[in-house]
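Final report, closing paragraph on structural work. Over the funding period we assembled a curated collection of sequence-structure pairs, and we close with a single example.
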Amino acid sequence: MSSDPLTVLVYSDNARTREQVRLGLGRKPATDLPALEFVDVATAWAVRKQLRAGGVDLAILDGEAAPAGGLGICRSVKDEIFQAPPLLVLLGRPQDSWLAAWSRADGVTSHPIDPFALTEVATRLLRSRLTPTSTELVHR
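Its predicted structure, as stored:
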């Protein structure tokens, strides 16, 4: 396993939400994962720019952000960016899980941010990013 840090993009128009995500995950959320580096963004334009540039291992998108919510951004990223990283969406309420399915989010958790739930979903998605799939093994 590489010791290079993993990059986590955190999108919200609310600086406090971004801070809660960073604090909830911490720099080393699991012993089997490298340390995390965070990229904070506050606009949909910045999300797309960062994801198109590459190098992001996980994107966490606030579904309650305005004017562009994380659910809509998630759906457009899935349509527009080839091999986008896993996308985790923060829902305003658990009853909105159908919206997460519509957005094609890879992972979901709810506000208020629960550090344990966030870490569980984020580490699962990061591990999937680091584990080669069977098709990648065939092509090597």
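Residues 6-138 form a domain with the Rossmann fold fold (CATH 3.40.50.2300). The chain has one domain: 6-138. We thank the funder for supporting this effort.
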